[in-house]
Fold this protein.
Amino acid sequence: MADQRTLFDKIWDRHAITISDDGETLIHIDRHLIHDGSFHGFNMLDSNGYTVRRPDQTFATPDHYVPTTGDYADDERREKVETLARNAKAHGIPHFGTGDARQGIAHVVGPEQGITLPGLIMVCGDSHTATHGALGAFAFGIGASEASHVLATQTLWQRKPKSLRITVNDARPPGVTAKDIILAIIARIGAGGGVGHVIEYAGETIRGLSIEQRLTLCNMSIEAGARAGLIAPDEAAFAYIKGRPYAPAGGEWDKAVAYWRSLTSDEGAMFDREEMLDAGDIAPMVTWGVSPEDALPITAMIPDPALEPDADRRAAIQRALDYMALIPGAPLDGIPIDRVFIGSCTNGRIEDLRAAAAVLRGRTAKVPGFVVPGSGLVKAAAEAEGLDRIFLDSGFEWREPGCSMCVGINGDTGQPGERIASTTNRNFVGRQGAGVRTHLVSPEMAAAAAITGTLTDIRKLQS
Amino acid sequence: MKPFMTLTAIAVPFDTLNMDTDQILPARYLRKPRGPDYHLYLFHDLRFTNDGEERPDFILNQPEYRDARIIVGNRNFGCGSSREAAVFALDANDIRAVIAPSFGDIFHNNCFKNGVLPIRLDDEICTGLRAQLHERPGVEMTVNLDARQIIAPDNTIFYFEISDFRRRCLMEGLDDIGLTLEHEAEIDAFEAAYRDEMSWLYPA
C-alpha cells in the first residue's frame, strides 16, 4: 500500500524539493559535516565563485590529519588542519578546532554535540557517515564534488536508493557486541550486498542496543556496500539527545519529539529486500582477510581456497591469504599479533573504552598498542573515570583524539609486515600502512588480543 | 569537466572482487595537490614496490595495457572510502570509462563529477569482456555514450542504462551546481516552509 511507508520513505519524502524528468530527486540537506580532508570541496567552490549557502547547517572539525601525539608528522599535514580552520572562518562555519575539547572524529562529534538528530538528512565527505543513522538520520558519505554542491546549494540530486530491512532478534550471547553483529551481517550479505540500498536495522536485539552500540552498528553499513544504515528513533535515542548543545530545548524539544515519534516504519510497509539474523547464532568475530566480508567467529579456521567453487571468490581468498600470511585450516584463535589499536569512528566512544578497560584492568599487554579516544570530550570523560590509568598501567599509550591508525592519514601507521588487532572498520590491503595486516575486532577482543599477544576468544578471559 | 564523447581505446581487465578505493589511490596521497605527478598515485602500491620499482606482474605495467583508457572490473568496484581522489587519479591517467557488474555508490557518483563514465553491465557480460581482454591483450573497445552502447572486442554490442540528465552532463561537460541553481526559487521556497515547520532545528 502506497500510504504505508518505511522510516526511510518518510525521511526521503520530507526532504524532496523537486523531481527531475528522469527520476532524480533534489533533496534538502539538513546538516553537512566537514573535516580536514574537505579542502578539495572548498577549492571547487572557490574556483567557481560560489559561496556557502547555509554556514549554520555546516559543522567543521579536523580529524583525519590531526596528530595523536601533539606533533604533526609534517607541515603538509599541519597545513590541511589549518586550511580547514581558515575555510570555516572565511565562511562563518562553526568549527571545533584543535585545542577545543569538542574536537574529534566527525562521526563521534555529531551525535555528541546533538548535531545528529532523528529525521535529518546528513552528509559528510567520508564514507562512515552512515554512523549517524543510529539516531534515525538518513546520513551518507559523499565525494568532494558533491560536498561543493552541498556547500553551494544545501541540496543534492539523488536517485532514491532501495530499502533493505535487516532484522536481528534474540539475546546477544556473552562476548557478542554491536561490532560482532555488524561483522556477522557483512559476512552474510557480502561487502557489496547492500549496494544501492539503505538498510533499516530492526528487531529486539537492535532495540536492546545502547545508542553508542547502535552508532557502531550503523557505522559499518558502508562495509556492506549500503548507502546508509538507519534505526528508528526511540525513547533511548531521545534520552541520549536531550540536553546536548545543539539539540532542541524547552518548548521546541517537545515539538521535536512529537515529530520524531512518527519516524518508524509503518506496519506492513514494504521493503525491497529483507534479511533475518538470530543474535544467538553470533559469536565474537574477527576478520582474516582484506575485505570486511572476510569475517568469521573467533572459533573458526582460516578458509581453504581449494574448497571454494566460485573462481573469483577463490582468487579473492588466495589474494587475502597471501597478503595476510595465513595458512588454510589453521585456527584463528591463537594467531600471534604485533600491535593493538583501539579507537576510530567505529569504536572510539566512551562505552568502547570502558569495555576495553574492563578487560585490561589489572592485566598487562604483551604487545604495544595505543588508545585514541574519538573526541576530546570522550578523552576527558575517560580520564574522569580513570580509564586512562588502566590503559597506561597495562602498557598502552593514551593519545589525543582523531582518526589515527584507522586510516593512517596523520602518519599513525604500522610497520610493513606487522599484524594488528584493530577496533576499526577496514582491513583493506595497506589500510593501516603499506604491508600492514589488519584484523578487525571489537574493543573487548582487541583488549584480549593485547593481553595474550594473539587473536583470542574474549569469552576465555571473561569467565 | 571534459566532455565525454565516443571513446575507442585499449581496455584493461581487473578481475579482483571488491576493488576498494584504498587500492585505487592509497590514503597517503590524499594530501597531494592535483599536480603533474598525480598519475603516479593510481593503483600505486599495486604498481610499484616499496622501493619505487614497477611490479612487472601488475597488469597496467604490461606493455599492451599501458595506454588503456577503459577498465573492465569485477563486482563492487570502487567500494570503501569516499575519496574522490581515486577518480582524480583515473582522470590523471586519461582513463575515461569503467565497466563493472556493480560499483561502490560513492565512487559511482564521483565518476560522473569528473567526466569518467561508470557503466553497469551484467556479471556474465563483464566476465566475458574480461576474458576477451585477457586473450587479446591491448585490444580496443568502444564506448558510445550517445547511443548508450559499448562494442566489445568481438564486435558484440551491449546497451547500458544512464539517465538523460547524467548523459547530458557528461556529453556537454556541464557544471551541475550552475544547473541546480536554476532551481533556486524552488530551493528558497522549500527552505522557508521547512524552517518554519522544523523550527526546533534552527535555534534562534
About this structure: DSSP finds eight helices and seven strands in chain B. The two ends of chain B are 40 Å apart (CA to CA).
